[in-house]
Amino acid sequence: MEYLGYWLATVIASFIGEIANDLRVFKDAASAGYKINLNQTTEGKNQIFSSYTNFMFFKMLLPLINIIEVYKNIIVYNNNKEMLIEQLHAQDKLEVMSTNERAEWLKKPTALNAIIVPIRYKRRLEQATTIKMVSDEKSWEMTFELGDELLNKANKDDITIFEARGAAYGMSDDERRKEILNILASLSFSGDSKNFMMLLLILKGRGNTFVVNLGKEEQQEEDNERDNSTRGKIDELKTIQDELMNESSLEEQEKESDEQQISGWQKTLNSKKIGSHYGTRKKR
What we know:
Layout: H1 2-31, E1 34-36, H2 42-48, H3 50-59, H4 65-90, E2 94-96, H5 99-107, H6 111-127, E3 129-134, E4 139-146, H7 148-151, E5 159-166, H8 173-189, H9 193-204, E6 209-212, H10 214-283
Parallel strand pairs: 3-6
Antiparallel strand pairs: 1-2, 3-4, 4-5
């Protein structure tokens, strides 16, 4: 029974030691500014955990030998960790940590946190909001996350910028946050129900992408108003022209009617004069 307890203790200790030794690669990669891509092929994963796999199936059940093997693997890794990192980099198994990821990892620089931080960061990035702002002066695109402190109006700087492109690429984080706050204020005070609904969706943060085109929309509205005004003036001129033509037509008709009436009167007068003339001569 005592031997069984010793054997079980060595197995557990060797298991924990081997796992901890294999996880060191994640910490060393994070220290160098990289994260290991866990979505690579099974071959790549087996390469990272090769010693662990062999140890599990062949040496873990052997007391004392398992402890010796763990110790040997630790020494081997210490002597070859730089070469292993370079090999993983050459095989495209490493990705550069973003500024936000590295800052989060440095809060607790452990091997386990080197695995957890990229997974959390990926989820946050999927839920982040992207705004594409286009105006006559500048255009930019930013992917960001609004923090709880900002939504509670406690801290206006609680905005995490994940990606910045266009004019926002060369800005500082403070300038980027200011641009985002200006957009939110413009949507809030625009008085347009469409912009207000867009603002609500941005505040919810469901991984949506929005195109804000305030400057060009205003220009388009001015163009539409100008076109409508021009069309109105043209219609008004056409109406006046039609009225003038109708009045001219009525005048011509009245003139023709007057001429006909005058002509009739003249004929009547002439006939009366002729009759009177013949009557006078007959008396004589």
